[in-house]
Amino acid sequence: MRKYFYRMMSKYIRLYARPADRVVELDPLTDELGHFLDGIESSSLDELARTQGARAIDYLILNGNLHYMPDVQSYLGSLNETMDPRTRLVVVTYSSIWRPLVRLATICGWRRKTMESNWLDAGDIDNFFRLTNFQLIRKDSRVLMPVQIPLLSWFMNRYVAPLPGFRALTMVNVYLARPVPQVGHDVRPSVSVVVAARNEAGNIQNIIDRVPPMGPDDELIFVEGGSSDDTWQRILEIKGKHPERQILAVKQDGKGKGDAVRKGFGLASKDILMILDADLTVPPEDLPKFYEAISSGKAEFVNGSRLVYPMEQQAMRFLNLLGNRFFAAAFSFVLGQRFKDTLCGTKVLTRENYQRLAANRSYFGDFDPFGDFDLIFGAARMGLQVMEVPITYRERKYGTTNISRWRHGLLLLVMLVFASRKLKFI
User: Fold this and answer.
1) pLDDT in the model for residue 142
2) Which of 55, 21, 119 minimizes the C-alpha distance to 383?
3) Which of 19, 67, 110, 340 keeps 20 to 30 A from 365, CA to CA?
4) Is residue 164 domain-shared with residue 230, that is, in the same domain?
């Protein structure tokens, strides 16, 4: 029973903690998790405080510890003071509805003999986080059957436990949190704005004129590919007229917006990376809102939302609107963070986090023709704090959309199933 249970727990933690990450279990109650998580270290809170400033820890694990703490608030407060801002805290607790069975397992010798003294629900954990300057990013409910019954346990734990309704009956809660960042007001990072431009010749001048300054040394990166009009020539021509701006123009190697975004992000040299759609349906004048959300530390991944404010009349067809709402709800369930609009093209993250995301892209693969979901899935797995910035969606004034409603809708369904298997039903 114990081996089966801890094997499952290691799989849930591995969803976030990749093999190359530094993972430390804090004040472990047993050594069993270490049997299944290669490379995991163990440490006490005192040791962690003494070694503060050493190699950064990517994930700190509290596996059941809070059930035994006489003062949870003081413990988490002291822990916060030792943590690097990038470190993620993974807290594992047990649901109180399993208390009678846990007591029985203790009596029967199937687990440690000391009974839990604190039975903390989700509201308690969230309250302790807020009291000690942690920010809850995601909560997962896992394990309906802690004992192994061939096929049945696998099916119930993988596919049934994450479903609404059944989640209230699960045994284990896994919380992912980060320290609330302390960002100095004098820090003004610069921005690389990446524009994938295909058949957008009539919008190039507008983009250069309307993208506002945000940081002290911003750059604008145009990535062109597959145009049947003179987009490339227009980029070069207008770039030459604006020597005062840092403008980089390149041709993409492959096809699709996703390939263009990866090309542009790979060339970007500034601290913050932004995507701006060349059709200008997201007003460039709104980009400072995204900048403020990420430079202030409030968010680590900023996503635009077109579904809050009224949009211009021809900006989105009715069936597209319904599809957007469906996919937003479905992906929010799968990703464990709220997304009101997954398909808005404007997305923002730091270059450091993008490089970490790109280094671990193999978990999902190079599958996304849009570029949106490569970033969204990677951010979800890394446990980045997501925030959405509402924008007023504008009607396209030049050219025609590159989106095929039915073909791309089918691709989105495929990606939804794919993400479900990689992030939710594991």
Assistant:
1) 95
2) 21
3) 340
4) no
Nearest of 70, 17, 69, 66 to residue 40 by alpha carbon: 17
Q: How far apart are CA 178 and CA 85, in angstroms?
A: 7
**Structurally, how many domains does the chain consist of?**
2
Residue 184 maps to a domain: no
Structural domain range at position 344: 191-424
DSSP string covering 66-104: GGT-S-HHHHHHHHHHH--TT-EEEEEEE-GGGHHHHHH
Residues forming beta bridges with residue 252, ordered by sequence position: none
- Average pLDDT of the residues in 231-249: 94
101 with 197, same domain? no
Does residue 155 lie in a domain region? yes
Cβ-count burial 212-240 (b if 16+ within 10 Å, e if not): eebbeebbbbbbbbebeeebbebbeebbe
For residues 153 and 282, state if they share a domain.
no
- For the chain, helix, strand, coil in percent to 5 are 40, 15, 40
Say if residues 291 and 191 touch (Cβ distance below 8 Å).
Answer: yes
Q: Is 423 helix (H, G, I), strand (E, B) or coil?
A: helix
pLDDT of residue 219: 97
Q: Are 108 and 212 members of one domain?
A: no
pLDDT in tens, 147-177: 899 999 999 999 999 999 999 999 999 999 9
Residues 297 and 372 in one domain: yes
Pair 92, 63: CB distance under 8 Å: yes
CB atoms within 10 A of CB 21: 18
C-alpha 269/C-alpha 271 separation (Å) is: 7
More confident residue, 415 or 6: 6
Looking at the domain assignment, is residue 231 inside a domain? yes
pLDDT tens-digit series, residues 188-232: 899 999 999 999 999 999 999 999 999 999 999 999 988 999 999
- State pTM to two decimals: 0.86
The per-residue pLDDT for range 281-296, each reduced to its tens digit, is 899 999 999 999 999 9
- What pLDDT does 405 receive? 58
Q: What pLDDT, on the 0 to 100 scale, is given for residue 183?
A: 66
- The CATH code of the domain that includes 167 is 3.40.50.150
Residue where one domain finishes, among candidates 118, 146, 179: 179
Does 320 have pLDDT greater than 80? no
| CB 170, CB 95: distance < 8 Å | yes
Q: Are residues 272 and 416 in the same domain?
A: yes
Is 185 inside any structural domain? Answer: no
Count CB-CB contacts under 10 A for residue 385.
22
* Same domain as 167, residue 210: no
